[in-house]
Each structure stands twice: as C-alpha cells, then as structure tokens.
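Late entry, 6-diazenyl-5-OXO-L-norleucine complex.
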Amino acid sequence: MRDVLEQAVALGKTHTHEGAVATYIPELGKVDGSQLGVSVFCRNGKRISVGDTKVRFSIQSISKIITLAVALEICGFDQVFKKVGMEPTGDPFNSLMKLENTDSSPYNPMINAGAIVVASCLASEISFDTMLDTIRALCMDPDINLDKKVYHSEMSHISRNRAIAYLLESKGYIEKNKDVENSLHFYVKMCSLSVTAESLAGLGLILANDGIHPDTGKRLLSSQAVKIVKTLMFTCGMYDGSGEFAVRVGIPSKSGVGGGILSVVDGEMGIGIFGPALDKKGNSVAGECVLEYMSHELHLHMFDPQRHTL
Ligand code: DON
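Prediction complete; structure with ligand written out below:
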C-alpha cells in the first residue's frame, strides 16, 4: 500500500498549483499551499504516512464531525435533529440563502449554519477543555491544541457567520436563552484546533471501527452517533462537491478550509490528508486527487465490487 500512497502524493503534487489557500481567515493565508501529506491508519494495526503528515494545520470544518458526534451523545438524536436537518444543500458552506428563503431549519450539520446550531446545543452542556480532552482521545493525538492565532484571526473576520447566527436566533433555531455570541465562540474554537494528517487518520480509524479504539477496545462513541456521522459525511461532507466526490471517490469524507480531509473506509481504515491549496468549493485540490487515485487503485469505493479484498 505504501507504493500507492507514494504514487498518489506524487500525482497530487502536480495539482497543488491549481488551488489556492483560504485567505478569508487571514491566518490561513500564510500557509504554504504546495504541502501535501496522507496518512492511513488500518484496523489491522498498519500505519503508513507519506509526505507532510506531521505538519500542524487548522482543522476548520472537519471539527463539525466531532461537534455533531458529541452533541448526539450528550443532547440526544431528537434534541439535535429538532434544530437541524439531514439534507444536502448544493450550496456553498457559508450560504444564507436557504436559511432566509425557506421555513426549514439549517439543512444539515456540515454547513456553517447547521454546525452553529449544533454548537449552540453543546456550548452550555460541556466546557471547551472537556471537549479538547475528548478530541485528543478521538484523534489519538494528545498534542492537539487551540491555535490562538487562527482563533483570533477568524473571530475578527466573523461577520458572515455572525449574520448566520443571529438569523438562526431570529428564526428560533438558537434558543433565546442561549447566548448567540457564546455559541459562535464555541464554533470558532472548534474550527481553530490544530491537527495533523495523522490525527485525522486516527479519528477516521475510530469511526471506521464503530467508535471503538482498536488498540484498547474502549468505546469512545456510540454506534448510533458513528453511523449518523458517517452517513452525513457521505452525503454532505464535501459541501456542494459532495455528489461528484461520492461518484468519483465513494468514501465518506469531510473537508476543511485548512486543507484537511478526513476519510473513513468503513470497517477498514481511517485516512487523513493535508493539502492546503483549495478549489472554489473549499476542498483540497490535491487531497481529492490523492483520494480518487487511492480509491481506484485500492478498490476503496463503497460500491466497488472488489472492496474488502485488502
Ligand atoms: O466558518 C468557517 O467559515 C470556517 N471556520 C470553516 C469553513 C470550512 O472549513 C469549510 N470547508 N471547506
């Protein structure tokens, strides 16, 4: 498998120039867009990393997975899905359009509006420090921390998300007794955690293994939360690129504007990618290329008839 990963990274490298690092959060604009790394953590204990897999970067929207999983554990299915839907939008991740034009709750927890609602459910239930401990365990990475520079940079360019949050409050999806600003801070703190491709592969492995740490046998997330998270990753995890990505790659995945992609080959492995040059939809250009190559060469597509032959 190492050969395939090396070939995938070599191929991906030829595409990094087609994308650009995110600049709407100025701190992210300082990152070198030519970096690329992929880590694979398998259930059988095999761990392979190629390229820039130890470089710390901003988790950004991939944190939406963790926020949702923990909210499902703490607040429960009914409470969470009373306030957020399960449908893909086909719109950009930070769009306000459907929120304003329809009577429905935010379409899903993977877009900003949905994640801010989920954050509002959680912010009053759990401290950020407890969240951090949970995240370190889920990612098998004790060194995950809040990147304060990214946090302050995002908080000083928060107008669009603040508009979303107050619109949500006006429509009753953030309750009047919940502090909107507090929910926003919680959401941005989650987005500002610094991870590596290896941390994402660790989280992917836990999700691939039904929420159980394969080395210790300890259950970290319930089966139900893991099932829901993986389903929404498949249908909504790559924003308005989710449909094409499902056809081409066929692996439940979640991207972030820090350049990360977390992918879960169910029952088999977690994959973590870092490639900060993004396409117009906010997904890592080289990361998508690496995943499409791996999916094809290793038969990882969910509906590949040769899957499970690794
Ligand atoms: O709220 C935002 O815009 C960012 N903190 C997260 C966006 C993001 O990662 C979208 N991903 N592709």
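Residues 60-61, 93-94, 112, 154, 161, 191, 255-257, 282 surround 6-diazenyl-5-OXO-L-norleucine (CB under 6 Å). Will revisit in the morning.
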